[in-house]
Amino acid sequence: MEKNIKLLVSDIDGVWTDGSFYYDFNGDSFRKFNTKDGFGVALAKLVDLPILILSGEDNEMVRFRLTKLKIEDYKLGVTNKLQVLIDHCAKLNIYLSEVAYLGDDMNDYNIINKVGLFACPSDAYMRVKDKADIILETAGGQGAFREFVENILQDKGVLDWAYDLYLNN
Fold it and tell me: Which class is domain 7-167?
């Protein structure tokens, strides 16, 4: 990989979830999240690697999950993820080439080849998989974000250190 990654960006539906929506009788939607991704967030925070969440959906359950994990930078209901990402990079004074992005479907497609690293879950849409730099072994909703973070930290040479720090706190 050998990229100087300074920002992790991720979609939610199909990445942190399996992409399914569950509806109750009032029409409210629910999603199932995997606790493994919370460890990925913890590891990224231990090494001061910021996280930005970009999602086309705007849902209170997603807000609740992100708040619980203390992820402050997120944009929900986004139609142009690339423009939001460009603006966020300008705010952080970093280049798109310093971004690692995790996405799974066509609403992430225009990010491919614009960032330093584009990864996708093993069950991502085939057109996304064909263009991704990394296809994770993990499917969406099964800990894909954690695998993504571990890959980045391994490449930076700090994965073992981050786990040691986590386990000794």
Answer: alpha beta
